[in-house]
Amino acid sequence: MFADFIKRLTAPDPSPLPDADARLALCALLVRVARSDGTYDQAERDRIDRIAATRYALSPFEAAKLRGEAEALEAEAPDTVRFTRAIKDAVPYEARIGVIEALWQVALADGVREAHEDALLRLVANLLGINDRDSALARQRVERG
What we know:
Elements lengths: L2 H7 L9 H17 L6 H15 L3 H17 L3 H11 L2 H15 L7 H13 L4 H13 L1
């Protein structure tokens, strides 16, 4: 279903993604982080829906639909390194900082900051080309609520 999309995203010289495709790719990354600890619970799904609704001015129904599509894309997407680097090449820096904030919202949705999630977020921030300072500031904004 998403083979052409992934092929375009991971091409050697990808062109910037249209908004709808960027939304889908970024939401798929949220899903990947949410699934990284082996559990993908309703609180994480709800958080992803709220993030999508807020960031993209979607209705709850539209946000849930986008998350469903993102779940399917994430399942078919290449490894995190290639997938994240592809997003970096196709999405502007400012949008990627927003993604780091959203990823922290998902990682902290259960109220617990875990070492493996910290490590994954550091890796993803680096692969997205986000410097350590901007990543730390993004996390702090999320923690302050």
